[in-house]
Amino acid sequence: MQTKVRTEKMYIAGEWITGKKMFDVINPQNGEVVANVPTASVQQMLTAIERAEEAFQNLSSWPTHERIKVLTKAANYIEAHHEMFAETIALEGSKTITEARGEVKRAIQTLRISGEEARRMKGETVNFDQREGSENRTGYYYRFPIGVIGAITPFNDPLNLVAHKVGPALACGNPVVVKPATMTPLSALMLAKAFAEAGVPKGFLSVVTGAGREIGEPLVTHPAVKMVSFTGGLAAGKKIAHQAGLKKIGMELGSNSPVIVLEDACLAEAVSSTVSGAFSAAGQNCIGVQRIFVASSVYDDFVEAFVERTRDLQVGDKMAEWTDVGPMISEQEAIRVEGWVQEAVYEGAVIEAGGIREGAFFEPTVLTHVSHQSKIYKEEVFGPVVMIESVESLKEAVKFSNEVDYGLQAGIFTKNLDHAFYAIQHLDVGGVMVNDSSDYRIDEMPFGGVKGSGLGREGIRHAMNEMSEPKVVCFKLGNLWGV
């Protein structure tokens, strides 16, 4: 059955606007056109930024209680239209309908937490009298919004990753201009509708659709944009950092996440967790499991159980309730992953399961004996492929885990606290999940990495710290104090 094609408008400073040109949003599963969306011009992007700056200057003291109200109402709107949001996420992207429903739930939580954190954006008093001669001084610091935030978001979580930028920005009192992924703009536009219905002040939110190569640079380089918050690939992140100049930058640039399984681990739990972590969202997940290092004494048992569970996954129609793994975001991406796997096999890797592509679908794939020089070992595969390797010690596992130029999150399965703390202290990553795969996150926790995995931290309160600045206030008191 042909999906009814929607015609959408952009949301610029409180107005729904079309463009002279339109582009198609394609369902990667079958190539059907889901919607027609405006291709913004450079001038339209500049208008969004300028209106945001005007709104910030005219409403620089947007009261906290109003921010809380808007964020809460937007969350309530999404909750009231939960299934509509989920269907949109699934249609325009790679997620199954079940995974899409989970993302909607998380986005609601993200906005509600943002509202809660708005009331907790506080400073503290400073004891100026700790310095000799400052006995007659007292003061404090508080945090203030920095201004327009430019947000650039990816396709793999088209609603919640937008919420992770919009929610904290508005909670601080900052306007935000969002450039969503070209392949998945519909969820961001629906989020804009939620905020419009919630009464966000005009200018404080714009969602500008179109090609990053045309409207991305104006968003990154405009002097009114005080921070760029970007989630995407390392190459694009490096380019943005070069373009941005002297302004704040927050970047989550992906990973090549390792998981360590020691001989004392609960293998059934480790297998279940890592299979899910490797193949959810068709492997297109920045904290998805890519490399698994298993103690040699349990390696064979682990591989056998992992492969068996992988083969049980149901690949197919992403709108079906029974589907575990849907298509990748495009056939081109699936072809890329297929090429990486074939290259690894040529270099000595063994395919234990999967390895077959059909259109945009790529079967969940398990590799062993992968060369550490292979591209698929060193880079972020961003597809449904996982590598399993035998190790002789925890120290060796940690060494292998750290030898790539990424460090977002890692996991370790063990019942030994000494081993757990060794991994915590020596894994060069932004987060260590003990007895969980790397693919575990709650939206409140600080989220980000080291090395090529990015700069700064997301997670609502932590993003708010990035999107605000402390201002120190010091009072020198007069002679009434008798000093």
From TrEMBL:
EC annotation from Swiss-Prot or TrEMBL: 1.2.1.97
Per its UniProt record, what InterPro entries does this chain match? Ald_DH/histidinol_DH, Ald_DH_C, Ald_DH_N, Aldehyde_DH_dom, ALDH-related_metabolic_enz
* Taxonomic superkingdom: Bacteria
Gene3D superfamilies from the UniProt entry:
Aldehyde Dehydrogenase, Chain A, domain 1 (3.40.605.10), Aldehyde Dehydrogenase, Chain A, domain 2 (3.40.309.10)
Q: What would be an example GO MF term here? A: lactaldehyde dehydrogenase (NAD+) activity
- Identify one Pfam family in the record: Aldedh
Q: Which residues form the Aldehyde dehydrogenase domain?
A: 16-473
**Which top EC class is given?**
oxidoreductase
User: What's its catalytic activity?
Assistant: (2S)-3-sulfolactaldehyde + NAD(+) + H2O = (2S)-3-sulfolactate + NADH + 2 H(+)
Keywords in alphabetical order, please. Answer: Oxidoreductase
Main function: Part of the sulfo-TAL (or sulfo-SFT) pathway, a D-sulfoquinovose degradation pathway that produces sulfolactate (SL). Catalyzes the oxidation of 3-sulfolactaldehyde (SLA) to sulfolactate (SL).
Stated family: Belongs to the aldehyde dehydrogenase family.
| This protein's name | 3-sulfolactaldehyde dehydrogenase
Q: Which organism is it from?
A: Salipaludibacillus keqinensis
